[in-house]
Amino acid sequence: MTFKKLKEISRPHYYCLFLDKLFPRTLRNVLRKISALAALISFALSFDFLPLYFSKADGLFFLFIFAYLSLSFLEFFYKSMVNEGLQMRISENFTDKNKNLDYILSGILFVTNEIDAIEALFETKAGVEIFIRSSLSLENFKNFIYSDRSSIMTSSLNFGGESVNLSLYIEALYDIDKSLQSFLSGNSISREEFVGAAAWVMDMEQEKRRKERFWSRENLGAIPSIGTSWSYGETVDLGKYGVPFKDTINVSLFDIENGYRNREVSTLESILERRTEANAIIIDDDEKVARDIVGRLLKKMELGISLPFIEHENIIELDWNALIASCKNKNGFETALLKILNQSVSAGNVILYIRDLSGFLGSAKNLGANLPSLLFPYLSSPNLQVITSATNSDFHFFIESNPILLEKFERIIPDGAGVAESVAVLLEQAPVIEKQYGFFFSYPSILALANAADRYVTYGEMPGKALDMLIEIAPWTVERKIFILKENDISIFVSEKTGIVTGAIKEKEAEKIEHLEELLHKRVVGQNEAVNGIANAIRRARSGVGNPKRPLASFLFVGPTGVGKTEVSKALAESFFGDEKKMIRFDMSEYNGPEAFSQLIGDFAMNKSGLLASKIRDNPYGVLLLDEFEKAAPDILDLFLQILDEGMFTDALGRPVNCRNLIIIATSNAGSALIWETIKSGNNLSKSKETIINAIIRDKIFKPELLNRFDGVIFFHPLLSKELENIARLELTKLVRRLREQNIELIINDEIVNFLVEKGSDPQFGGRSINRAIQNEIEDLIARKIVSGQAKPGSKIEIKKEELM
Amino acid sequence: MSETYESDSIFIAYAKWHYGQGLRELFGVTGNFLWFIVNFFSFKLLLKTLFAPWRRLGEHYGGGFDLNAFASTLIINGLMRAFGFITRSLVLLVGLVSYILVLIFSFFISVIWLLAPIILLGSVILSATFFVI
After folding, report:
1. Mode of pairing for the β-strands spanning A314-318 and A350-354
2. What is the pLDDT of residues B26-78, one digit of tens each?
3. Which of residues 289-318 of A touch B (CB under 8 A)?
4. In Å, what is the CA distance from A191 to each residue of A42, A195, A199, A428?
5. Long-range pairs for B101-106: beta carbons < 8 A, 24 or more residues apart
6. Contact, A100 vs A165, CB < 8 A?
7. How many CA within 13 A on the CB side of residue A511?
8. A449, A409 contact by CB (below 8 A)
């Protein structure tokens, strides 16, 4: 379709736009109301027997009637034309279902200059809103519009398909206009964000206009009918312990058109439509998902588009906590519950929602009641439907093992919502938050929020955790007096909330990554090959070249003890994540028994969470250090095959654990003897790397597939005397710092350093022997001097070689 | 369904709309309001359950020969049904009156709509006449 054709078919909207320009709507409405009032007054004044009789009142009456009728007809015409092409959820026979026009787009089309298609965006409210929602400032946008840019002729625009809406139009403009593309990319706005912002503006506007049409079936049908419950029974006891589901959730926010959770809602609907055993259990780790599905069904029922059998049903949530709390014993509980169930059955229109069935089972069991057998007869009743929820592990543990419940409940397993689905939900809810708190979300901020929630919030499920974050960010935004929330604000919020330096702190991170070798060398002496290897791998991973569905980076450090393997990991945690404590450390030699697996990932039978799982959940962003990796049990090594490959694993309780924000480092002494031999024989370690790896595989220490899954196998060579000297100096500096706190100055001279290198060059313990020498020789000597009064605060200590002998 | 306006001026477009799409929409909206009244007063449901007991209240007769119990059940259930019938009938009546009112109202609107040019012209002429006289 060409621009000309599009403008032609949008003609009905033109009349409205023309009218608004010539004779603004507010003025029209005010005048219409004034003429109605004036007509009434002049009618009253036209009777000559009344005291306020006015001779010209008759004439005025007809004049005002003329004005009122003319303005009313004009308004009807206006409303009819404005809504031309608007698609309603419940179609009406007088509207054209096949006509799809977008009023907000027409507004842009009719002010578009033929030689510059973009300029109109600046001249219309909708156009400006798109740019603002794309997180651009008005000033910036204005500068672009009036800059020296190549303009796009409308004749060059061509749209595929029969109908064009605002988002398609904006997409077409973006694709054809190179200067717009470079302007947006210069402001870090992608095509997806720009077009998404347009689609969002369009959806909100259409929703507003749908609501304005109060005479539509969609709006009239939402008014609840009277008398629908009169032929159903009363539920007195359920009233005490039951809450109407519509009071627990804001149904009006749901947009059933966006397709989100359609499958689950239809499945639930068809289960409830059955004549008997119409009970469903929604299995998801987040109860909000179950509530969301039931809420969407309720929305359908309210709109009158649900299946007829459940149209007049009443969804009531059983507050079983209150029920349990108010019952003192088993008998009391059983009587109360049976009363509720009997009343629900005799009422005939009750759909009972029981949250967390396994929790209810457990609480009832504590009172000594057998809930499944109490529920059993009612679950087959044609007059009662039950919807319940359970987490995955609870379902397997408590419900699956109970044949009565398993048989009576049909399972619904909601699809895991990804980032894209969560964005749809966030867009649904954002306008409400905006209204409450008085600020605006930009579209990129919504995308960033969904991504951040998915990536950095380790507890909960999507979209629940994204929605929680949306609610949490509102007061934060108001506090900081932010008017339009941008992508960058989300990063700051996430950093403050979780302590994670998120991807958007780009400059800082880029600088760190660029100078990673220097940062690492501040703590690590020598090991150039290892440090370079790590820095390169980290750069690869963080430049976006790496796979986002894997850990940030993973390394196997191979080398003898005391050569800096752990120190490198600590240095990495400190330089990359800003804190040495951002490191989870496991000594894998402790996990070589048969119980090791359940220790690490949890125990289903004991309902116990595992150490590895819970530590990663608490510290999702940092370094995971696995010391003496080769000593771990074989099934644990197999588990790491998956972790290294997918960046995810599922714990024993069925909950996924995200390892994609971790740098995983495994250390091993395997092959140290060979490394020693290589160094002794004067060969280059990097050249013998393959031989050593082959030897490790041959000795069955690690499987080749495991070694392949690491981003890099890094070899640490034994320390040379030059490196030992540097270590000695580094460690002595630390001692100097400690002594300075006591106001004692220690002077480091070559004599001490040489002595330490000589004493500490134990090939078996590497750098650690230097530490030991400092402790045993230097620290002892200083301590003696302090005790004997030779070294007083304010004095200088210089240790001579003779003193050390 | 809808008119094509191409490059009509607003006056011609209005005239076309008034006796075409506008009229259709007027009837359509009337239909919507009538549909709303039927739904709001639950016509179908109330007629179907016209004689059902009020909120399922009543007694259950246990069977056997117990004249007392039988009579009491009969009276109570009869009363509940009668109460249900009266309430529902009242609502249906209010609904029916509203339905008729909407019909009458829309009839008048339709007449005004159809005669709009005459009414508008008439009111101008009448107004002028009053001012002249």
Report:
1. parallel
2. 999 999 999 999 989 988 888 888 887 776 676 776 667 777 878 888 888 88
3. 304, 312
4. 61, 6, 12, 21
5. B102/B30, B102/B33, B102/B34, B102/B37, B103/B34, B106/B26, B106/B30, B106/B33
6. yes
7. 4
8. no
Distances (CA, A) of A539 to A58, A517, A553, A565: 88, 11, 10, 20
- C-alpha–C-alpha distance, residues A696 and A692, integer Å: 6
CA distance A474 to A14: 39
Residue B2's pLDDT is: 47
Cβ-Cβ pairs closer than 8 A, A with B, add up to: 136
* pLDDT tens by residue, A19-40: 998 899 999 999 999 999 999 9
Place of tokens 């929790």: A359
Tally of CB atoms within 10 A around B37: 21
Total count of residues recorded for chain A: 805
The total of other beta-carbon atoms located within 10 Å of residue B15's CB is 14
Q: Is residue A196 over pLDDT 90?
A: yes
Phi, psi of A226, rounded to the nearest 5 degrees: -100, 150
B33–A215: do the CB atoms touch at under 8 Å? yes
A351 beta partners: A315, A385
Select the residue from A19, A220, A236 to test the B interface by mutation, using most B Cβ atoms within 10 A: A220
* CB-CB contact of A433 with A471 (8 Å): yes
The candidate with the shortest Cα–Cα distance to A272, out of A246, A293, A257, A251, is A293
ipTM above 0.85, yes or no: yes
Query: Per mean pLDDT, which of A333-342, A605-614, A653-662, B98-107 is the most reliable?
Result: B98-107
- How many distinct helices (H) and strands (E) make up chain B? 5, 0
Per DSSP, what are the bridge partners of residue A745? A796
Size of chain B, expressed as the number of residues it contains:
133
**Is the minimum CB–CB distance between A56 and chain B shorter than 8 Å?**
yes
Chain A, window 456-495: residues with a beta carbon less than 8 angstroms from a chain B beta carbon: none
Nearest by Cα to A297 from A414, A214, A206: A414
